[in-house]
Design the sequence.
């Protein structure tokens, strides 16, 4: 069985993330979307909220599961028999850092990284920019699944 992981912060998940997850789900038997628990960084959404949002937006694909992890990604992969990390590449500017991480990860464990170009429609899209635009009242409806859009609006209204 082929099993890939789509790792990230997903704070919050965007349509760009969802596009990658859908395409990876079409290529692998099993896909785990893994949210990094980063003790050094408090996100806008709590980890459990991100997991709930990811479960809501990926529920239509039976081979996609959602989980969180802390520590090294390759250790999570090894523990769960995951042979491939799939990362979306938005632009050349993503490549340098992603290549460094891929080479470090393949040196740490027998886990390969595959790069998948994002849909050009989402090449400018990042969770941080979406949060910034939404904070100042900009329209992010084209960039987020509706359930995430509602959660972000509620979160910003409460803060
Ligand atoms: O969505 P992000 O923040 O770009 O995701 C980055 C992520 C979670 C994929 C990366 O930071 C990661 O893999 N962190 C886990 C810690 C780790 O394994 N670090 C070594 C990378 S070479």
Sequence:
């Amino acid at each position: 069985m082929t099993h890939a992981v789509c790792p990230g912060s997903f704070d919050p998940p965007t349509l760009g993330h969802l596009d990658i997850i859908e395409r990876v789900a079409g290529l692998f038997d099993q896909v785990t979307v893994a949210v990094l628990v980063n003790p050094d960084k408090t996100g806008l959404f709590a980890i459990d909220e991100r997991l709930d949002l990811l479960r809501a937006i990926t529920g239509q694909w039976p081979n996609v599961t959602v989980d969180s992890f802390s520590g090294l990604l390759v250790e999570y992969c090894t523990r769960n028999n995951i042979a491939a990390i799939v990362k979306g590449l938005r632009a050349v500017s993503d490549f340098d850092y992603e290549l460094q991480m891929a080479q470090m990860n393949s040196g740490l464990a027998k886990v390969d990284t595959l790069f998948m170009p994002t849909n050009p429609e989402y090449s400018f899209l990042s969770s941080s920019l979406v949060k910034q635009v939404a904070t100042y009242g900009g329209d992010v409806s084209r960039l987020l699944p509706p359930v995430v859009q509602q959660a972000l609006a509620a979160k910003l209204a409460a803060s």
